[in-house]
Hints:
By secondary structure, this protein is of the alpha+beta class. It has helices at residues 17-20, 54-68, 72-75, 79-96, 99-111, 127-138, 164-167, 184-189, 205-216, 249-253, 293-308, 326-334, 396-405, 472-479, 484-507; strands spanning 3-4, 42-43, 47-48, 140-141, 144-148, 154-159, 175-179, 182-183, 218-219, 224-229, 238-243, 245-246, 266-271, 274-279, 314-317, 341-350, 355-358, 360-361, 368-369, 372-374, 385-388, 410-414, 424-430, 436-445, 466-467. Among the domains are: 138-253, Pdz3 Domain, CATH 2.30.42; 266-427 and 442-507, 2-enoyl-CoA Hydratase, Chain A, domain 1. It starts with a strand and ends with a helix.
Amino acid sequence: MPMVFSKRFVSRWCLSAAALALGLAWGGVAARAEASGAASLRRTAPADFSDLGEVEAFRRMHEKIAAEYAFTEWKGVDWPGLRARILPLIEAAAAARDVKAYRAALQAYVAGLDDGHVNLPRNDAVAPAIDALTAEASGGTFGIGLVELDDGRVIAASVAPGGPAARAGMRPGDVVSRWGDRPIGEAIGAVDLGRFAAAARVATDEHRRLEQARLMTRATIGTAVEIDLAGAEGAPDRRVRLVAESDGPAALRDLAPRLDPGEVPITSRRIGRFGYIRLTILADLSDLGRWPEAIWAAYRRAILGFRAERVDGLVLDLRGNHGGWDLLAMRICGTLRRTPVFYEATVFYDADTGRFRRFTVDDRTGAVVDGLTVRPEKPVFAGPVVALVDPMTISSGEGLARCVRERPGGVTLGFHGTRGSFGLAGGEIRLPGGNVLHYPDGRAVDRDGTILIDSRHGVGGVAPTIRVPVTYETAMAKARGEDVELAAALAFLDRASAGRAKARTGSQRPR
């Protein structure tokens, strides 16, 4: 039976694939909205094709997601083209009874959709295939970390001591001009993320470029590449030959983005005259269906403490935030505002009609409403606020970042914007071999019905109000372990608080 909306179901269960890799539950509570009267909407039921053959299961999966995926028109998804490209890979894997090849084909399918919420989470059944694919495509390292600068140059911001690059004479800061037989910029763009089990799910062009540069420095152990290094001050370029070698199981395990189950979801401290709060997730990892009271209570204590200490500004660190409860994002947003503000309305696939329908439930009351509104909530923090963001900020974390960006006295700051994946998940398809596909069957829209935050044609997410430039200096500082973005945020708050103090002094002068 299709699921029926509960009063909590509107909560954004769009946790990142890293969170899902912990084996967390997916979906919501299948009970009727208590205060919605006769109004209801039946969402699609999870599908189980795991007992079918690999080819038939793929065909059924494709048919289902093509009908129920929330962003087909918005993103211009070419479903027939995607099917035609992947089906032969599925058929070949099935004919060879190759579990690893089947997983690789599904991996390529998912990579064909620019959405951080379309994913194949890790579980015990598929872990061996994932590990084998990871070792095959990226088990070896060339011993460098590449960063593409704003001026188009690409530098080796880090060089692993004793690694292939270091032994070839490379040093941190070397400028790479060619990779193999291609100019470096072209080589980065040619990296096929669908080959890499360790690739993060990307939704924007800028995030894709970052992942391509990250994974280009990995290859099958024994792979050789010749690269050209730009000479300094008119000196000729020099060529080095690197051979990929193993850097150990720990490095390989950490290559894919993962959520540490022991990570504390919220931490806070004072940094000089300013408060600092880091939020890594907006959900209780032990029970996704339970309101994350501990996180909310810790946040309120931090804000109350900062108010008592009269801090001059707040840094809200949302880098790497995995998403979770929309209601928590809205309540935190409410502590940063003095007036109500529209947050979102939601549109879902209706399993009864086979069409998408605008249907929004207020988690706080269970009532069906036209849209969700952020309401001012105590304790209110009225000073300037900076939200730190990056491409690993996803889902409800992006909603909170957007709230800060649109707040008077609020800015977002970072090298890059957020993931651009704000859909509402609920689609689940079980496939042979323990593979499970998740996808969003709902989308967030503004009052006029325009989709919020989710990427389109490679552009989306919450952009930094203040974009930290990727220069030689900032890239090298970040590679050394310096928190360049936090330093920029504190510098902004210094200027903002000085301006506020000057304005207060001026307002007290006699007229």
